[in-house]
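Q: Is it fine to ask for two folds in a single conversation?
A: Yes, each is treated on its own. Send the first.
Q: Here.
A: Result:
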Amino acid sequence: MILLLAGVLGLAVGSFLNVVAYRVPRNESLVRPGSHCTACAAPIRHRHNVPVAGWLVLRGRCADCRTPISVRYPLVELGTAVLFVAITARFGVTWALPAYLYLAAIAVPLALIDLDVQRLPNRIVLPSYVVGAVLLLGAAIGTGDPDAAVRALLAMTVLYGGYWLIASAYPGGMGFGDVKLAGLLGLYLGWLGWSSVWIGTFTGFLFGGTVGVVLLVTRRATRKTPIPFGPSMLAGGLVAVFAAAPVADWYFSVLYPAG
C-alpha cells in the first residue's frame, strides 16, 4: 500500500515537474496561467490533466488545435512515479524518506533543463540547499544520529570546493551550475556515508566521460561541443543512493582480492 501511494504521488508530482521543466528556463510563473497548450494557449481541461491517462485519452494531441503533445510528458510522469516507488522501497517509512523524495523530485527537472538549455537554474538548486538541510537535520534528530548531519555538511563543503577548483582551472569544461549542484549532492550523499560520496562522484564522472566518448565516436559532437554534465552527476548520485554499499564492496574486492 505504501509503495502504491508513493507511485500515485510520483505521478502527480511528475505532472507538476513537466511544468517546472518547461517554465523555469523561460522565467515564467509556475502558478499562472494554468496548464495550457503551448501551441494555441487553450486551457487544458481537468479530465485531460490526469497524469499519463490524459495523454493517452488525447492520443498525444491537443484537444483544441490537434498539435502533437510530446511523449516526454507521460514519460516524465511515469519516471517520477518509478523513482518515488524506488526511493520509498529503499528508505521505507523513515525520517529520511521526505528528504530523498525531494531529491528525486528536483533531479528530474534539473536533468531535463540541463539537457534542453544547458543550465542548472539557481531557482531550483539554491532553495534546495535549505530544504535539503532542514529535512536531513530533522532526519538526524529523529534517528538520534547527529554525526550524519555533520558528515552531510562536510561532504557538501568538500564536493563544492572540489568542483569549484575544477571549474576555476578548466572554465570551458565545467560550469558553476555544476559546482552548486555538486554541493547539494554532497549534502545528500554525505548523510548516507562517505562511501556514497565517493561512489556518487566517481560514477557521475564515469557517466559523463562515457557520454562524451560516445558522442565523439558517433560524430554527434566535437571536442568543442558543450555537453551537459548535470544529468550525469544526478545519475551518479542516484546510483550511490541505491547501490553505494555493493559497489564499494565490489571495488575493494577488485583492489584487494581475497587470498
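Q: Second one now.
A: Result:
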Amino acid sequence: MLKRVFDVVVSLLVLVLLFPVFIFVSLLVKFNLGSPIFFRQTRPGLNGKPFQMIKFRSMLDSNDNEGNLLPNKDRLTKFGKFLRSTSLDELPELWNVLRGDMSLVGPRPLLMDYLPLYSADQARRHEVRPGVTGWAQVNGRNAISWDQKFKFDVWYVDNQSLFLDIKILFITAKKVFVREGINASKETTMTRFKGNKE
C-alpha cells in the first residue's frame, strides 16, 4: 500500500514539474517522426496480465518493397537515439504508473511472446508490478545478459522495500544523466530473448 502511494505521489509530482518538457518532446516527435506521437504496445504486467504500455515514439514506420517493417536499426533516427539515450521516451510511462499498470520501480515489462519462454524462477518477475526502472537497469541495463537481468529481477522481487525503491530511483537518475548502459554491445536495442538453453 505504501509503495502504491509513493508511486502515485512521485509520478504526479514529476509529471507536473516536467510538463513543459513533456509538451516540448511531443512537438519534437511530431516534427521529426510525424504521427502518432506515442508508441503503444501490449506488455505483461502484474501476474502476466496484459496492459498497454505507452512511450514516446522513437522510430520511423518505414517499410520495404513488400510492405514489411524495416529492421529497427534502419528505422531508428538520430533523434530517436537521442530520446532513448536520455530516457525521455520513457516519460509517458508515468501515466501507466498512475493507472496502476506499472510501478516506478520493478522488473521492466518485456514482450508478451516471452512469457512461455521463462523458467519457473524467471517467471517470478511478474509477482510484482513492472517498473519504469528496476534493479537490473541500475546494474547494467541492456549491457548485461538476459540471464543476469532475470536474476536481478527476481532478487528485487525477494528484497523489495521502499528504501530500495528510493535507492534505485536515485541511481537511475545518475545513470540517465551520464547515459550509461543504453545499448547492448552497441546494438540498437537489446537482442531478443530466445528462451533458456536445454
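Q: Anything structural to flag on that second result?
A: Two points. Confidence is low (pLDDT under 50) at residues 183-187. The radius of gyration is 17 Å.
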